[in-house]
Design goal:
The complex is a heterodimer.
Chain A lengths: L1 H19 L2 H23 L2 H20 L9 H19 L3 H14 L6 H16 L2 H12 L4 H8 L3 H23 L1
Helix pairs in contact in A: 1-2, 2-3, 2-4, 2-7, 3-4, 4-8, 5-6, 6-9, 7-9, 8-9
Chain B lengths: L2 H12 L7 H21 L5 H12 L2 H31 L9 H17 L3 H21 L4 H27 L5 H25 L5 H24 L5 H37 L1 H10 L3 H8 L11 H27 L3 H67 L1
Classes of the chains: A mainly alpha, B mainly alpha.
Chain lengths: 187, 405
């Protein structure tokens, strides 16, 4: 029931944006998705500043896309946002040759910037992040959407434009691979 | 996945290690709002049609159209097939034995029975069986002049009657609470059907008397069996007992009316048979017996064998036996012993069927002889006229002779 209400509210905002070009409605959509999109981008880019830039750009591009006079067939706002984010991340990869280094940098800064008390835990998370980074893009995305963003298989399927059963298989493989990479790093 | 990694992922989520700074989120929101607000003014607002279309696109998922299309195709196929079937069914409703669509009509009726049987509604099953019996009896009335078609409908009618009886039997064996109601339905309906069948045989000579008799016997038997079931089981209420008694009485009265009619037929036959003697005399009086037979055609009556009078007497005896049973039945009708009444009615029914068969056979012969009698009268008239003419000629000759003299 809660999901249905949330879904209807999201659709209402989407309608207001598309039909009435309502900035406040878009701001509401921004509130709903900004954290998720940021995490998605950060996982791929590994630099918070760059991730922030890309996230801002994602929302701006989506706004322009929505208010375009041409007829749009949009079944899911999340699907549109993640697809745009994915494209912009690819653009960023192309533009920034140093993206591989960034990955390590982010994981290391994560450890160095925190206090000694949480060092061990942060170390583990950093190792896990590095393991996640070693996964291929598809696996990274499903792990993030499922475990960090807490999405359902159906929602992930919508975003990745796959069948829920395929997502389940993908997630299973990603889990196995992540476990193996993480164990290797611990040895 | 090992529990450790799963836990770490959960911690990653809880500790917001990957979440954006709240300050950046708020700042970025404000910036974004400014940017997008600026773009709104320069763009044209959408028309009502576009807004409506947008509303539709957003709230109605695209998948619905895919499903809707599949459903539409399936629906159309079913509708086309169904309309074809319905058209055939509706066209077949008036078909008669021998018609192309007659089998469709029968199949539709059977489908109804199967569907009702699948739902376990025994009363509905009986209703459809009885409807089928009624339809077949009406068909027989419509095709009464075509014995082959009568045969087809009669065979189907027998099947339906058998099915009706089977349903009642099964309902009784299974202890179906509807068994009594089913029996009542059968009693009422069979009475109606029996009456309509009787009207056909009474109206005119159809040449299917024997078949009709067999059908009537089947129908009456089904009614009687239903009545027996009603009387075998005790009634739950006084009203029910009264209804059962009334049904039995109606059934018995119907049977008794049949007996009365049978007696009338015998009286007629006796009248005709008594003239057989005169016929023989008339035949003897004619120029020659062979000539007379030639003139009146071949009759089944053959002197020397068992005479028609004897056979009528035999029929009369069987009818008298039936009449005796009818008398006993009438006495029981006044009393309250419904069980005995039904027993006697069954006995009467068997005797009446046998008597009717004898009557039907003798009736044919009697009709033939009546025809013979009619034709013989004609022969006699011709002979008489001949004699008169001869007499006249003779007298004319005498007159002429006298004139010459």
């Amino acid at each position: 029931m809660k999901d249905l209400k949330k879904n209807l509210q999201e659709k209402r905002y989407l309608y207001l944006v598309m039909a009435k070009k309502d900035p406040q409605a878009f701001a509401a959509l921004y509130d709903l998705y900004v954290e998720k999109i940021f995490r998605f981008v950060l996982l791929k880019i590994d630099n918070r500043e760059e991730a922030q830039d890309v996230t801002s750009e994602v929302f701006l591009k989506v706004w322009h896309y929505l208010i375009d006079a041409q007829k749009k067939d949009i079944s899911s706002m999340s699907g549109l946002l993640y697809a745009t984010a994915r494209r912009l991340v690819i653009d960023t990869y192309r533009m920034r040759a140093k993206q591989k280094t960034c990955s390590i940098e982010y994981a290391e800064t994560l450890v160095h910037n925190d206090g000694m008390e949480e060092l061990a835990q942060k170390q583990e998370i950093a190792t896990l992040l590095k393991s996640i980074k070693q996964l291929k893009q598809e696996y990274q995305e499903v792990v993030l959407l499922r475990y960090i963003d807490g999405m359902s298989l159906k929602e992930i399927a919508e975003i990745l434009q796959k069948k829920p059963t395929n997502v389940r298989v993908l997630l299973h493989r990603a889990q196995k691979k992540l476990q193996s990479l993480y164990d290797d790093r611990l040895v | 996945m090992k529990h450790g990694v799963e836990q770490l992922l959960a911690q990653m989520k809880d500790q917001d290690v990957m979440s954006p700074d709240t300050s950046w989120v708020a700042k970025n929101r404000a910036q974004l709002l400014t940017q997008i607000s600026n773009t709104v003014d320069v763009r044209m607002s959408r028309s009502f049609k576009e807004r409506l279309s947008g509303l539709f696109d957003i709230f109605v998922p695209t998948k619905i159209f895919v499903f809707a299309r599949s459903f539409a195709v399936v629906f159309l196929v079913i509708a086309l097939a169904g309309s074809g079937w319905l058209a055939s069914v509706s066209a077949s409703s008036d078909s008669l034995p021998g018609d192309t669509l007659y089998k469709v009509k029968l199949a539709t009726e059977k489908t109804k029975v199967i569907v009702a049987g699948a739902t376990g509604n025994t009363q509905a099953v009986t209703k459809y069986h009885l409807e089928a019996v009624e339809k077949r009896s009406k068909e027989i009335i419509q095709v009464k002049k075509e014995p082959q078609k009568v045969e087809v409908a009669a065979a189907e009618l027998k099947k339906s009657i058998e099915s009706t009886k089977e349903t009642l039997k099964k309902a009784k064996e299974d202890g179906d609470p509807e068994a009594r109601n089913i029996a009542k339905d059968i009693t009422k309906k069979t009475k109606e059907i029996s009456q309509s069948l009787k009207e056909v045989t009474d109206e005119e000579e159809t040449g299917i008397e024997k078949e009709m008799m067999a059908i009537k016997k089947e129908v009456n038997q089904a009614g009687l069996e239903a009545v027996i079931l009603l009387t075998e089981e005790s009634s739950d209420t006084t009203e029910d007992a009264e209804e059962v008694k009334q049904l039995v009485q109606e059934q018995v009265e119907e049977i008794l009316i049949g007996a009365e009619e049978m007696k009338l037929v015998v009286v007629d036959m006796v009248g005709v048979a008594s003239s057989t003697k005169k016929i023989e005399d008339a035949v003897a009086l004619s120029t020659s017996k062979e000539e007379a037979e030639e003139q009146i055609g071949e009759g089944e009556y053959t002197p020397g064998e068992e005479t028609l009078e004897d056979r009528v007497k035999k029929a009369d005896t069987s009818v008298q036996e039936v009449d005796k049973l009818a008398l006993e039945l009438r006495e029981l009708l006044v009393g309250d012993d419904v069980g005995e009444m039904v027993k006697k009615a069954q006995e009467f029914q068997d005797a009446a069927s046998d008597a009717e068969e004898v009557l039907a056979e003798v009736s044919k012969d009697v009709d033939t002889q009546a025809e013979v009698a009619k034709e013989t009268d004609l022969v006699k008239e011709v002979e008489a006229e001949k004699e008169v003419m001869i007499e006249e000629e003779k007298s004319e000759e005498v007159v002429e002779e006298k004139g010459q003299e």
